[in-house]
Predict the 3D structure of the following.
Amino acid sequence: MSKARPSRTLSLACVLAALTLGVALAHGEASAPPTRAGLVEQFLARPEGTVLLSRATRGVREFTLEVHRIESEIAPGVRVEQWAFGFPGQPPSVPGPELRVRVGERVRITLVNTHDQPHTLHLHGVTSLAQEMDGVPHLSREVRPGESFTYEFVAQEAGTHAYHCHFQTNVHLDMGMYGALIVEDPDARPVWSGEHTLILDEWDSHHDPARLPYTPSYDTFLVNGKAHPLIPELSIPAGETHLVRLLNLGAQPHSLHLHGTSFLVVAKDGHDLPLPYLADTLPILPGERYDVLVKGRDGTFPWHDHNAGANTTRGEYPGGMHFDVVGSPALRADGTPAPQTTHDHGHPSSPSSSTAADSAVVAISNFEFAPEQVHIRAGGSVTWENHDSVPHHVALTVDGKEVHHELPPHGRVSVTFPQKGTFAYHCLPHPFMKGTVEVE
Ligand SMILES: [Cu+2]
């Protein structure tokens, strides 16, 4: 979350302000609040404009995105046509795959237009790019069917950004052409142990994209492309603090209210706030991004749009923008354990199974392995299923050798364990994701 810009000349005031604001948050250290004058000075010293590609300090990060027409179930029984970004050879999805880059990298995103409409890629929130890379058809160019174009920039500011199509934006954005673009600062030491990205959107479930003029009437309200009860639960156990990145890439304002706790709002539109603030209800307008820290607690509590009309699907309650935050087991008011609530939707979040079986399945969802611990018999196998839209790795040490299994978004891999033992594993790009295989 640090905002240090290693490749630029900074004034001393700017350096001091960056140290006070970003680094203190990322490292969890106390610091004096910045002054108004200091913040204005920091703004005036802020370098603006195109950062030359030759100024990259950390090598090249490349992605290729295609566009495909897909059909998706956005709410139980509600199937719609979508135009979805996807990596070549992998299932396209709404939102499109999350792109993660690091400060200082030269980022190359090639849009291969495999669809029958012109599209572009607008890099929402990235201020270091050249105008021709901004993806606005009349100021740069459109990418026609069959064409490709590579959008290139040097990542400068750590934070939560987005990408989306900017061609006939009212239709194309509404058809699902968006995704998160996260810029990470590899020098920052985050205070959170888990991370979640939630993208808000609305859908007109009766909409036909071929019918013009386009006058949508939204009746389905989505988080990461799904309406309640298809939105996965968010697991934040007591004792842990997670970063939740909230992006509104829809067309309507939303008012996200979390029951049972208050969160700390730490960044807006990719910028660390000089004074993070506590809230339990966050208004988020189209195009805005907020990063909030959520501490886990006991019990399961809803997080939903407090505009109750958006808690419906096609007018029926409950539906829409509503999901559960699952903490540690609920306690009664007298401190004794409360009866367990069972969940019949979302990703599996059951505790470790105690009986060894011939095989086990570990679901990867929202940057977690669930269950974290599985028991199998010697000779059995474990299958990991990646439900996230980012790649994960399973890095295992077997017989003293570390073995890496890469799981593309929505991919799966099975590993056989011939010998008894306890095998700890983790995800390489997300080392806070950990799990264990017990072979008996
Ligand atoms: Cu488009």
Remarks:
- Helices lie at 12-27, 36-44, 169-172.
